[in-house]
Specification:
The chain is of the alpha+beta class. 33% of the residues lie in helices and 26% in strands. The chain has 13 helices and 21 strands. Strand 4 and strand 5 form a beta hairpin.
Amino acid sequence: MNSKYDIVIVGGGAAGFFTAINIVEKNPSYKVAILERGKEVLTKVKVSGGGRCNVTHACFVPNDLVKFYPRGEKELRGPFHQFCSGDTIEWFEKHGVELKIEEDGRMFPVTNSSQTIIDCFTQATKKLGIDILTGQSVQSIFKATEYWKVETNQETFSCQKLVMATGSNPKIWDLLTEIGHAIIPPVPSLFTFNIKDKRIKDLMGVSALASVKVKNSKLEASGPLLITHWGMSGPGILRLSAWGARELADKKYLFAIQVNWLNDLTLEEAEEKLKELKLEHSKKAVAKKSPFEFPNRLWESLVIASDISEEIKWADLTKKQLQNLALQLTQGEFQVNGKSTFKEEFVTAGGIDLKEVNFKTMESKIHKDLYFAGEIVNIDAITGGFNFQNAWTGGYIVAEAI
């Protein structure tokens, strides 16, 4: 059976839906279909942001926004000038969904439910007469002279323009290499570090603002660091994993990190500070209370790791012990041995080589009338609503171009 459409969109996720809705709103006469291989559409939207859907981030300046994308920073500058976070807020408002900003800048629907976003999209596609076809697993794509042919496990579709919005789908990447596209091989981005170390063994749930460096590398990041029962997580670690996605994959996830629990104090400054504390608190036990902005349990653990027993008073600290403590505080070394996926928000670095995409239209530079939206291209971001923003921007630009 052959079904004819003006536009076929492969992928029933955020980027696919947003593209379809924007195309038909601008041109109601177009016949558009979304093909989804699964039984359900928008499954990633449903679970994202802990089931609340982190729609975008309250960062409204394109040149600032691009800094959250380890891959795509340069390429997204133009697109974000066309459709940025402010436009996203306005778009959803127009479609009856109000968003709110949380303290950390992440934006969610006021309802706190991802279902609101799903309902918004499914109602819009229904109203616009867009066909949503599930259980359609694409087997081949082929460019005839005048149109594209898409074969699924169920039928064959022909269309004037083809939009690929399949996210990190290796099978689709393989099909695209068959028609001449280059794929940057995918590696995980956004993961947590597995660390077994007695200094953090019983500190699960403790969080501190820290800066983390990968030894023998230029990689570093700072932000809240969370100690978990398998190692370290939190925004600082995730940021490091995103920026270091390729390099850490090359290291097979075996490397050492240096943690500065005092965030921006140097070793020398930490020593000075400890000398002041030694005078100030001379009669108190060192291990008793953290003099810094992080939890007592962590402080006590670092004190013990510096060869300072629990009853030693500040006045009795030797020079060596004080130096040890300054080292533990600013340059503590931890051995990372493997990684764990961060929640269900599985993000990969990799995808269609950015050199093969025209970022003014999101059209393939290799084939006319072939467009891309979302994570299928080699663009990814740290956590916080940025991956969705890339999907909305890409979808909007494809719709404008078409």
